[in-house]
Specification:
Blueprint (H helix, E strand, L loop, with lengths): L1 H9 L1 H21 L7 H13 L6 H39 L11 H15 L10 H24 L5 H25 L4 H8 L8 H20 L1 H7 L3 H6 L4 H23 L5 H13 L3 H25 L8 H25 L1
Helix pairs in contact: 2-4, 2-14, 3-4, 4-9, 4-12, 4-13, 4-14, 5-6, 5-7, 5-12, 6-7, 6-12, 9-12, 10-14, 13-14, 13-15, 14-15
Length: 351
Amino acid sequence: MPSIRTSLSNNKFIAYILCSIFFIISILLAVSIGTVSIQVSTILSIIGSEIFHLPLQGSEESMFTNIVMKVRLPRVLLAGLVGASLAIAGAAFQGLLRNPLADPYTLGVSSGASLGAVLVLFFNISLPVIGIFTLPVMSILFSILTIFIVLLFAKKVERTLKVETIILTGIIFSSFLGSIISLLIALTGDELRQIIGWLLGSVSMRGWDYIKIIIPFFVIGSLILIFCAKELNAMSFGEERAQHLGVNVARKKMIVLTAGSILTGAAVAVSGTIGFVGLVIPHLIRLLWGPDHRHLLPLAMITGAGFLILADLVSRTVISPTELPIGVITSIIGAPIFAILLLNRKRERRG
């Protein structure tokens, strides 16, 4: 097993090919499977006709076009963007804190973003000028505010800011913010169903507007993290070593945390709280293809997108026509996988 893993980690070209194939197959399966099955060739011809403005013949083709372009494809792409956002944010947090347990959920970032979004839904807030971007902007602001409060509190507890202290503080704040969200739900009237459904995680019936909402934040956050890949590699050896290598550790740490919070906040705003993507996917990619963040970040992003697309496919088909919350599916899949990964890691250390 170690020899196979070593050969995989040494060939990044194969890694990108495999992850890309996984991502493309996930998209085609998710668009194809449903109450009405659509052949892959039909899907490709519909997408091609939309891109190149080619006419399609027949009423059946018209029906398939509506299903693909108005229902399934936007849902699939949104799930991919959310999965990619959470996975790359999780990979960056794990690299920065040098701990596989660090992710947007354990650091309290997801809970902060959820609180911001719930406040928007609860009070029906719409900020002037930004309009439809009120939800992601509030989620991002609360996620950034949460991570900085977590760091400030952790520093008060222990000036050296040990990773364990940061994670424990994040879990404490996550529980506290969760209780505030529960209080708001208890006070909610007609919006109760909408808020609970949103909190459980879903990309159902979102449409192209939600893709327009998340894309600018996804592009900005992802590019910032990818440009910080070399610094994350340096910081993985410790902050003192990184400083000797010329890295402005304090500045880069703030940049990485802010970019990760932007990605998490935007993902939570459009899909609700979805756990384990940012925890399991980066850990899996690191085991298979090594800890080099120049490749770890993009590979986690591609794989995270494919994983959440498949999780959403399961959520809407496993007990069709009823849909399960996607957050439930990711937890059911993610928790055992992560437990297995941790057990294997412990065995390898013993060996």
